[in-house]
Amino acid sequence: MLAFHVNGKTVRVDVDPETPLLWVLRDTLHLTGTKYGCGMALCGACTVHLDGQPVRACSTPLSAVVGKRIETIEGVIRGSGRRVAEAVQAAWQRLDVVQCGYCQPGQIMSAVALLKSNRKPTDADIDAAMTGNLCRCGTYQRIRAAIHEAARGLA
Amino acid sequence: MDLSRTPAISHRPMDISTDTARIENQSRRHFFKGVAGLTLAIYLPHAAAAARGRAVAPKVSAFVPNAFLRIGDDDTVTVIAKHLEMGQGTHTGLATIVAEELDAAWSQVRIEAAPADARRYNNLLWGPMQGTGGSTAMANSWEQLRKAGAAARAMLVAAAARRWQVPTDEITVNVGVIAHTPSRRKAKFGELAAAAARESVPAGLRLKDPREFRLVGKQVLRKDSADKVRGEATFTQDVYLPGMLTAVVAHPPRFGAKVKSFDAVRARAVKGVVDVVAIPSGVAVLAKDTWSAKKGRDALAVDWDETSAFKLGSDAISARYRELAQTPGSVARKEGDAQAALTAAAHVLRASYDFPYLAHAAMEPLNCVVRLSPERCEIWNGEQMHTVDQMKVAELLGLKPEQVTLNMLYAGGSFGRRASKDSDYVLEAVNVARAISGRAPVKLVWMREDDMKAGYYRPAFHHALEAALDPQGRLVGWRHRLVGQSIMAGSPMAGMIKAGIDPSSVEGASNLPYAVPNLLVELHTPTDIGVPVLWWRSVGSTHTAYATETFLDEVAASTGQDPVAYRMALLGRHPRHAGVLRLAADKAGWGTPLAPAARGERRGRGVAVHESFRSFVAQVAEVTVHADGSVRVDRIVCAVDCGIAINPDTIRAQIEGSVGFALSAMLHGAITLKDGVVEQSNFHDYAPIRINEMPRVEVHIVSSAENPTGIGEPGVPPVAPAVANAIAAATGKRLRRLPISPEDLKA
Known about the structure:
The complex is a heterodimer of chains A (155) and B (747).
Chain A: E1 2-6, E2 9-13, H1 21-28, E3 47-50, E4 53-56, E5 69-71, H2 82-94, H3 104-117, H4 123-130, H5 140-154
Parallel strand pairs in A: 1-5
Antiparallel strand pairs in A: 1-2, 3-4, 3-5
Helix pairs in contact in A: 2-3, 2-5, 3-4
Chain B: H1 20-36, E1 38-39, H2 45-52, E2 69-71, E3 77-81, H3 90-102, E4 109-113, H4 118-121, H5 137-164, E5 171-174, E6 177-180, E7 185-188, H6 189-197, H7 225-229, E8 245-250, E9 258-263, H8 265-268, E10 273-279, E11 282-287, H9 290-298, E12 301-305, H10 314-324, E13 330-335, H11 338-344, E14 347-355, E15 367-373, E16 376-381, H12 386-397, E17 404-408, H13 424-435, E18 442-445, H14 448-453, E19 461-469, E20 475-484, H15 503-506, E21 518-524, H16 541-558, H17 563-570, H18 575-588, E22 602-612, E23 615-625, E24 631-641, H19 648-667, E25 673-674, E26 677-678, E27 696-701, H20 719-731
Parallel strand pairs in B: 3-4, 8-18, 16-17, 20-21, 24-27
Antiparallel strand pairs in B: 1-2, 2-3, 5-6, 6-7, 8-11, 9-12, 10-11, 13-21, 14-19, 15-16, 15-18, 19-20, 22-23, 23-24, 25-26
Helix pairs in contact in B: 3-5, 5-6, 12-13, 16-20
């Protein structure tokens, strides 16, 4: 049994330690907000926070998170970045960012991580923090606007 | 996922402990509750005729029950959405139409996905089939749902009049409140729902004058935002049924190959793998979880029979297409005598274009959940072709179509891929479930590599164009030859192919809007290319708009005329094209100088206009070309005329998104084959644009009283030609092969 912390709770799982965190979250713990998109850390749909830092769960083996704190889209609204997460999700809804929505949990996890460390990001900061998150619906313009909007809400 | 609202769509992730009994109990309770409310039957002669599946003489009408909304005694208005929500905002749009005529408060509106049922939920533009595609959701639902909303409103008013003993014409309905002002009486919808259900649908329904609209044309927020930003929206990938196994399939490396034999010893040794089965499309590994299934699949050794496999590479296909373009094809459109005009012309321009295969590459790779029992096949999926899939699954299993139930979920993008003409991935999932005799529910999961390599692409195309100019520079002849595979051949729409012309191959070319006296559009449709092809967001216009709009731009430039003015002069009979072109040019500041380029950079502005799916879009692009030949698209100004704008913000979002989607293809997108094997596998070698490549997009909507037309696709076609024309303005280079190559644009 391997133990780690997800959204403030300790979980123990009997899974091969080389299994990517993504599949443990989804198939074992049924935290389905974290999405599978590529399996190679190319699209960012599986972005979660590992000890507060954004990582791609599809390329993070379970062995790397043993004893560590994971926050997913389901828990980010209750975690240490609660205020930021609230501001980001509210801005996302006010500007109707989502289309199909499949990439959006990952986008939001990246945006929350950005705003936790940088309360007033420039367009260039946003590009740098968000280039790892693909959106095939092309919602990028609204993602950028929503991050600025959330930043204003946090100021 | 909470199955109590099956087939509702805003599910929470399901608890693994959920058992069948609980699902059924909750469904039943919900059902009874629904009956207590108001369910509508409205009059739809076309649908009635289509649903019975037999020929009916025109103007013969009949009643058919159409349930599009339910008003609960808790005052919720539930709109039943017959179309798939794959990001394009259909659910919100459909609900807006109903709520408008119902005079509901937007806050009381909920949306539920309709099940597969062609009798009630067929696409009125597709005849007897239910499905979502061709940007038809709003166009076919507009009148149907206005009537559904208006009928419900009239029944609520009749119920109020009966209860209060007042005339119906003294009753008002405003933002979800029914009122009789003289007697100061008020009621919410829920209070009158049961009484309204006893009223009959009144004859002679009055629909609103557009000036009375309070939701249509206004800012209405999407209904799916909250669930999607919290990670609570349920996609097929998120369905977990009790005892479910996950299947990952080894597909053949070449299209048309079959399994000869396979060795599953190593696959079965993977912890979590439960079974390995041969199916018509490959070998499936079933496991308790996705990762084990993938590891098992990767450990398989399969020997493929490639006797009838397709083995040509992209270069050989292109060479063949170029050769075909030298000969006359089937005639798609003929006006005057283009050949004679070309022979007699003072100047002739020629250009040919090459377009690659393109993958849809939606963010959610293909998947499908199936649960089989002897009398039933239950499917969970977000799909575009309900009826076709239902019928093909029924045929495969020897069931009646109504024994195949489809629970509609959100699709994480689709762009046409979940409108599979062969029901390929749905049948694959059913075949896996059948191969294990239905002993467990099965979730078929395509890994990204399967999604990229296992087929169904926008067909590769070659175009050859010639333009004849008279001594004054007037366009007097136009010959356009296209070469590419047919999408409709072998599809449920094959009947639309007439005289060798698949309309989806030539749309955008055969309806060239410009006034040219001698015009010839011809098509070659090779039938021996074994690459599976499919409609891809905006279909034929993905290539025809590029060929026609860049070539016309080149013609205009050759005469020294302004590209906007040149087009306007030829659009006399097409006022809606002219309208969007003028608006886009005005808003973009056409004719004013661009901000100067930095040293070593070149800047330019270009335009394109195109009609697709009965909507009209013009775009003006501004680009910067760097010394190394890389291109940055700085700004795209769009004007769109899609009739009455139901949700203006959805229209803006769809055009913005179309820009991102089209630029991905133009700048990076190509599926190529080497000896029949697809060379791309994931987002590193088939790269959509990222946020740093997204230009500033401005969208301007033409005010219109025409009925609504498509918006999910029409934003795509003008993007690449507008950008290419801007690149030509900046560099003088005309790009005739997509995706573009920085090599061609080095300073």
